[in-house]
Amino acid sequence: MASASAIAVKVNGDDCEVPAGASIADLLRQLGLEPGRVAVERNRSVVPRASHGETRLEPGDALEVVTFVGGG
Residue 72 domain-assigned? Predict the structure, then answer.
């Protein structure tokens, strides 16, 4: 259960708590992910990378975070 200063969201199907008012960019930092190497979908809509810093998370948001892996 989320505390008063945190909200509950789902990330790739798992429960996660983030500070109230957190953005997608904040979440990526919390998860230790490099913003330039991921794609984020919020509630079934892709969020452009340029909007990660201004897109605030809301209680109950469902996020899918996909990490790009190079190879050849």
Answer: no
| Residue 13 DSSP one-character state | T
Q: How far, in Å, CA of 65 to CA of 60, rounded?
A: 16
Domain-embedded: residue 1 = no
CATH number at residue 45: 3.10.20.30
Nearest alpha carbon to residue 22 among 48, 47, 59, 49:
59
pLDDT (tens digit per residue) in 18-51: 999 999 999 999 999 988 889 999 999 999 999 9
- Max alpha carbon distance in the chain (Å)? 47
Q: Return contacts of 66-72, CB within 8 angstroms, 24+ apart.
A: 66/38, 66/39, 66/40, 66/41, 67/33, 67/37, 67/38, 68/37, 68/38, 68/39
